[in-house]
């Protein structure tokens, strides 16, 4: 692999604290047969969203995905107190599925067909939502909310992200379908050299704003 054109090289820690994580991400993307689902783990602010964008760009760079492949980002925390609305946004819904469902609407899975769906704060999904996603990860099919028969298919690479402990907050069956679990370290876990690089990067970014 030509590392000179590898977009992951722009990450601070590529040859240090992120070396294992980056190799996991490359393996996930390049795995034969459509890649492997991946979950990014780490506290708020470590760059999980940015990393998800790099995974999408790397997939295009290596011609795993076409240049026009969509990248759809969905933060599950927005609907944490309304699992029905969360599910309807993710899978879509049919007319009459719930009060206010005046027309059949496609969800994020359909919007991401042929590309990448990034589900941030995925621990906000309840058990039913996790089970539905398990079915999609396992078989590539899903049903819109309100449907009781028939299936829809979508070709989607899913990147999950969470700030919480995996074993304590997810169904075991769900986790079994996500073989690549990537730990992104907090700034406090980085070495002095990487911390200095972050400081320089922040200063450069601030100078550009001025």
Automatic annotation (TrEMBL):
Statement: the UniProt record of this protein carries the keyword rRNA-binding: no
Start and end residues of each Sigma-54 factor interaction domain: 11-210
SMART domains: AAA (SM00382)
Keywords noted in UniProt: ATP-binding, Nucleotide-binding
SUPFAM superfamilies per UniProt: P-loop containing nucleoside triphosphate hydrolases
Any single Pfam family the record assigns to this protein: Sigma54_activat
Keyword field contains ATP-binding: yes
PANTHER family: PSP OPERON TRANSCRIPTIONAL ACTIVATOR, TRANSCRIPTIONAL REGULATORY PROTEIN
The protein's name in its UniProt record: Sigma 54-interacting transcriptional regulator
Organism: Tigheibacillus halophilus
């Amino acid at each position: 692999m030509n590392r000179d054109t590898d977009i992951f090289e722009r990450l601070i820690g590529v040859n240090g604290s992120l070396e294992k994580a980056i190799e996991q991400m490359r393996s996930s993307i390049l795995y034969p047969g459509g890649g492997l689902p991946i979950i990014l783990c780490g506290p708020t602010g470590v760059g999980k969203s940015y990393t998800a964008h790099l995974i999408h760009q790397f997939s295009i760079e290596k011609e795993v995905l076409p240049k026009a492949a969509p990248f759809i980002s969905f933060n599950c925390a927005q609907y944490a107190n309304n699992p029905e609305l969360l599910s309807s946004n993710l899978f879509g819904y049919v007319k009459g599925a719930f009060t206010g469902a005046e027309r059949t609407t496609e969800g994020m899975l359909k919007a991401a067909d042929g590309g990448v769906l990034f589900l941030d704060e995925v621990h906000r999904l309840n058990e039913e939502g996790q089970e539905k996603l398990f079915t999609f990860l396992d078989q590539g099919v899903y049903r819109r909310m309100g449907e009781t028969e028939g299936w829809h298919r979508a070709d989607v690479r899913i990147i999950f992200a969470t700030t919480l402990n995996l074993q304590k907050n997810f169904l075991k069956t769900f986790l079994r379908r996500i073989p690549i679990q990537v730990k992104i370290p907090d700034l406090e876990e980085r070495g002095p050299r990487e911390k200095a690089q972050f400081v320089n990067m922040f200063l450069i970014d601030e100078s550009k704003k001025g």
